[in-house]
Structure formats: structure tokens, C-alpha cells
Amino acid sequence: MFDFSYANILHSNVINFAIMIAFFAAIIYFLKVPQKLEDYRASIQKTVDDSDSLKNEAKQEYEQVSDSLKNINQELDMIVKKAEETAIAFENKTKEDLDKAVESIKRNIEKQVHSEENHVEAEMLKAVSASSIEIAQKQIKTALDKDKELHKKYINDFINSIDKLEV
């Protein structure tokens, strides 16, 4: 029935081992394991290369930042100096503009005051003239009412002055 001889067992184990190797070779062939391993290796290599390039870029950026930080104090001093110069220039310009505006306002006020003085003077002259005429009129009426001959004399003088006029 069963022969457990060393030769049979060895023969059986060799056959089983060959079947197993053939089975694994078929699986490897159908699953395309070498191609997948190569793809996986290429993916890993690409990741390593990308990380190297990123590392180099990071080093360059670090060096640039490091170089710019070396001169940061000088740059800050220059920026502050320029800002101070700009502020001083702006202050001077503002002072000049304000001085011009104040001078213009003073001139306009002086013109306005002079104009008002002339207007008030004209109004006062007008009022004084009207008052003077009224007073003179009252005095003439009073003088004419006191002396009737004076009235006749003025009428005659007026008629004589009309006759002297040449038309």
C-alpha cells in the first residue's frame, strides 16, 4: 500500500518542490511581480531624487535668506534714514504750503478790511452829505423866512445867471 522508503519520500518531496516552484513561478509570471517591483523601485528612486532636489532648493533658499539677514540691519537703517528724510521733506513742504496759505489769507483779509473801510467811509460820507444838505436847507429856509428881501435877491440872481448862459 504505502511505500515509505527513503527513495519514494525523496522522489515525492522533489516532485512537490518542483510543483511548488512551478506554482510560484506561474504566480510571479501572471501577477507580473518583476515589473511591479521595477515600478516600485523606480517610484522609490523618483521620490529619493525629488527629495534631493527639494533638499538642494531648500539649501539655496536658506543661503539666500541667510545672506539677506546678514545685511538686514544695514537695510533697516537705510529704510529708516529714507523715511526720516521723507518725513522732513514732507514737513518742510507742509510748512511752506501753510505759510503761503497764511500769507494769502492775510492778504485777503487786508483786502476785505480795506474794502469794508471804503464802503463804511462811502456810507458815512453819504450820510454826512445828506445831513449837511438837510442842515443847509433848514438854515436857508430859516434865513429866507427871516428876510423876504433875501429871497427876492436870490430869485433875481438866478434869473440873471440864466440870461448869461448861452444855449
Structure description:
By secondary structure, the protein is mainly alpha-helical. The protein has four helices and no strands. Helix 3 crosses helix 4. The longest helix has 75 residues. It is rod-shaped. The mean pLDDT is 84.
Task: Produce a short descriptive summary.
The protein is an all-alpha fold and about 170 residues long. About 95% of the residues lie in helices and about 0% in strands.
Element layout with pairings:
Elements (H helix, E strand, L loop, with lengths): L5 H26 L1 H38 L1 H75 L1 H17 L3
Helix pairs in contact: 3-4
Shape: rod-shaped
**How much of the sequence is in beta strands?**
under 5%
What is the number of strand segments? 0
Query: What do the pLDDT scores average to?
Result: 84
Task: Outline the low-pLDDT stretches.
Answer: none
What separation lies between the terminal Cα atoms? Answer: 182 Å
Q: Percent helix among the residues?
A: over 70%
- The total of helices stands at 4
